[in-house]
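Let's practice the habit of predicting before peeking. Look at the sequence and jot down your guess about where helices and strands might fall. Then scroll down.
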Amino acid sequence: DQAVAVIACLQHLQVLQDPSEEHDHIQQIIKTTCKNLLDGFGYDNLPMSQTYLGLNRNRNFWHEGWVLLSLCQARDYVWPMDTQDGHLRALWEGLLERYQGRRSKNDNDNDSAAIIWHWALEQKDFESNVCYCGDNVLAHAICRNLQLDNDNDAFWSFVEMLRSKNTYQLASVANVYPQVRLHPNTELAALLVWP
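Done guessing? Here is the structure:
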């Protein structure tokens, strides 16, 4: 929620354009929220971070990806001197280590390109994990924001696999959920172009 609020505030700053008291307040909200994501939720030290304060719940890529995307968008307010995005790249590498894997146990399989799993690979095996459309398009948006080389072929192959599971040619919810729903297609369309 805080991550999406940061992105919304950044969009609001673009609407304001001229410096004003409201502009200064919004900038302060962005800085304070990002500091809380880094210090309070612990994203300054990824292995110790948590997506819920005061609750011992499993972390997942959907929550952590939004945190990283918001920090990417707000980088000028968080790390203005980090011109190479070193902090963000280190955080991204940590998320990849935690969530990126193959679609099947057989790494030689042509259809086993690296994708993003919802749950950390150390917590759930292939049979009990899931690859959501939303998680993977969020990862695609993060790569775009960090201007990283992304495995576009693997991403689009995953999207096509989701679309091939139904006669509507719409993205299904996930690799193990073939149902066509509005939200995965909305997430796909939105995150391909925004932010």
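How did you do? The beta strands are 100-101, 115-116, 172-174, 177-180.
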